[in-house]
Amino acid sequence: MFDIEEELKKLPARPGVYLMHDENDRIIYVGKAISLKNRVRQYFQASRNRGAKIDQMVTHISRFEYIVTDSELEALVLECNLIKEHHPKYNTMLMDDKAYPFIKVTVEEDYPRILLARQMEKDKAKYFGPYTSVQAVRDTIELIRKLYHIRNCNRNLPRDIGKERPCLNYHIKQCYAPCQGFVSKEEYRASIQEALKFLNGSYDTIIKELQGKMQAAAEQLEFEKAIEYRELLNSVKQVAQKQKITNSNGEDRDVLAFASEGEDAIVQVFFIRNGRLIGRDHFYLRIRPEETAGEILGSFIKQFYAGTPFIPAELMLQEAVEDEKVIEEWLTQKRGHKVKLIVPVKGQKERLVELARKNAEMVLTKDKERIKREEGRTIGAVKELEQLLGLGRIMRMEAFDISNTNGFESVGSMVVYERGRPKRNDYRKFKIKSVQGPDDYASMEEVLTRRFEHGLREKKEGKENGSFTAFPDLIMMDGGKGQVNVAERVLDQLHLNIPVCGMVKDDFHRTRGLYYHNQEIPIDRNSEGFRLITRIQDEAHRFAIEFHRSLRSKGQVHSVLDDIPGVGPARRKDLMRHFQSLDAIRAATMEELKELPTMNEKAAREVYDFFKEKKGDKDGQCSNAEAD
Questions:
Q1: Which of 31, 65, 91 marks a domain boundary?
Q2: What is the C-alpha to C-alpha distance for residues 37 and 206, in angstroms, rounded to an integer?
Q3: DSSP 354-378
Q4: pLDDT at position 555, please?
Q5: Which domain holds residue 86?
């Protein structure tokens, strides 16, 4: 029994991170402290004015734990990681998980390429961005390749020069074909230097050049060429217009401001790179109504910049944040150079922050209804399931499905939903190893056993961010009583207590209801909860089929009948058409097998003996298991 009063006395007066748990041992809040002793005790002092949401949280705390660190900076880093991992209910949560692309120029190569990159790596390449639109990055790269005839192949040059024919881009005059030695390294490098100038915002030279070429082509009556140059010219002007100068010192900075109403907040970010406004984006936060502007921005900065690959030299803020010096030190360490947090009070910088604030207000006003609808589809739908099943807070749901074709090796899928949204990074695929033929129950038992044994092993080894470490609050099985029983049997064997519910379908393969605690629970087909169940079921099915199809296309899955000597495509097809299933073939007599048009005595004997031998192996395994 955890005695809160006694444990409070044991708290050290050192920096660290504390985690609050509810009665189901879920982490509901993560915080950091310069002194754990002083900070954690404050939550349990009745005289403190903590705000309604924190008061409510305290009533749900059944125990707490803490991790001591050497400094407040280490505590901040650990707090960021734990919030991202556990999504505690009472923390201010960033609801978006976006990643921004870069343009990468591989200047370290003899014949450089220009590529889209998802993150900035510590290599010798040059990076531009991050940009807010993947499509804009692709369009810009395509434009640069056309303008400067840059290669887009993956050939290793100069090693592979002349080994293959030039690609289509050479023939349509969009590449100089360095793969054939048609351009010297120096000439190609000169084109790359021009491309780098373009990416740095130097558009005047290329605009004048394209205007000259367009006029010359028109004067020589080469109208198709003139149109081509005109289209390129318009594309360059469009890029130049998007990258307007916002200040003259060419620094990288982000401008952050927010607007809030109730428990909803929008943070607007302007991204300025090399002195140019390259884009903007907004982010949804779930906040406590009593939170200050500094607390909201501080929470956002810690969550957002913990995951983004690029840290600018300066953050311009609407309000000063808590722990400003510690956050600056943390960002400086991540960036490798000094990072400053400033609150502008006048001039162009202050106007930029105000513009960001107005944009945040407009988004909040415009999107309020959409946010509510989205919440209904996700968090609201999960709450419906909680009430329907009589469960506490459901954060993570995992759904499982098996896919096979008669005679084909089975595969399993695991899809994950958190807060009613798919978490695709946590999806997992399984190739069934221990089951021969189409046995969904046995296949599901193997998938679940492997999934949870792997998770238990990771927990035992202390792998906090292992691929199977996070366990679900609810398991959703694609099926009724049979599949639920399989899951519960696996959990019992592993001594795990996780609710299991079946997603039952009708005769037309449409979702009908839920199977839970040995009874089928009807559900309103017009409710958001029903739509969420359908989406989860369809997603698990899609993911399994997609995996199965990809394996078949690679030739990694083959018919069991292919293992029988003398059975080729024609006989295999004939067997499956006549008997419909492997079980029926396995049970067939010699006489029944010989009746098929494509079968002779020898082939029928091979099929009959093959399944007879398989059956004997299986019976032998069962006998041994019983003897043990």
A1: 91
A2: 64
A3: HHHHHHHHHHHHHHHHHHHHHHIII
A4: 47
A5: 4-91
